[in-house]
Amino acid sequence: SKDSAYLDQFDIIFCDESHFFLSDVEFNQMANSAYDKILHTTKAIKVFLSATNEELTKIVIKSYFYYNNCQSLNQLIDKVWIYTLKYNRSNVNKIIKFFDFDDIIEKIKSSDKKWLVFVKSKDDGEIYIKKLKKETNKNIAFLNRDNIDEQEVEASKTLDDLIQFEQFENDVLIATKIIDNGVNIIDRDLTNIVSFEYDFIELVQEIGRKRCVDDTDKFNLYLISEKKKSLSALETAKSNLRNSFFEVKPKLKKNDY
Q1: How many Å apart are CA 79 and CA 172, to the nearest integer?
Q2: CA dist 98 to 73, 107, 132, 224, Å?
Q3: Which helix (H) or strand (E) holds 201?
């Protein structure tokens, strides 16, 4: 709720997990507002940190160029720095595609290692848990916004274990994107990660939860392979969203909204 003048009392503004400004903008109206106020500060140094900063970096540079009335790119040299850490702590052993969760139930059943499964929604997670309980004897935990907010006993214990010990005791942990930021898992027994994600930024954040301790600490990555019909529907939805934006944009400029 603070404005740019207020933020300028600080020497440095750190924006951790800064991909949030892009990934959350579709459902969080404050993402754009916060970004705008931070970029309009004139004194504070702005630091954006993320494992997936490529797209945001381009936007930040363009914003700075525009907000500061820069006449040439040379004016940015003394004002914008880009640092990249080349070391990657996510050692993927192999990538395995699947078309449906049923395709990997048998793999989970016969496995003696831990699994981390990222799902798109709470409803999907509940469906997969029922299937696993029916087909396997695995110990399963589920983390989602509701059971964390409601501080359910099992969910709270699992989350506390992740925060304090950077591990989970269960054979299988199913989670929504609620833990795709700020949670580290350091556990050699976690050798399988399953994702239903098709967004690159979200996918990198998910697999980044596993922090490999050395080159021998690896995991298999199971990625959903969408069928053409599903991809077509997704493309249509995104196209409609884009068209809506371009319809609203001129009205916003004219202050008609």
Answers
A1: 47
A2: 46, 12, 16, 5
A3: helix 200-207
Look at residue 58 and tell me whether its pLDDT is greater than 90.
no
35 burial class (0-12, 13-18, 19+ CB within 10 angstroms)? Answer: buried
Q: What is the pLDDT of residues 222-244, one digit of tens each?
A: 999 866 666 677 778 778 878 88
For range 209-231, the mean pLDDT = 86
DSSP class per residue in 5-72: HHHTTSSEEEEETTTHHHHTTTT-THHHHHHHHHHT-SSSEEEEE-SS-HHHHHHHHHHHHHHTT-SS
How far apart are the C-alpha atoms of 242 and 236, rounded to whole Å?
10
Positive or negative: CA dihedral 4, 6, 9, 12: negative
AA letter at 78 = D
pTM of the model: 0.72
Written as six digits, the tokens of 181 are 């930021």
**Please, what is the average pLDDT of the chain?**
87
Number of other CB atoms surrounding residue 13 within 10 Å: 16
User: Which of 66-80, 103-117, 221-235 shows the highest mean pLDDT?
Assistant: 103-117
Q: Find, among 172, 96, 97, 169, the residue nearest to 129 by Cα.
A: 172
The tokens describing 250, both together, are 């001129």
CB atoms within 10 A of CB 112: 7
Closest Cα to residue 19, out of 28, 8, 10? 28
Both tokens assigned to 246? 């371009």
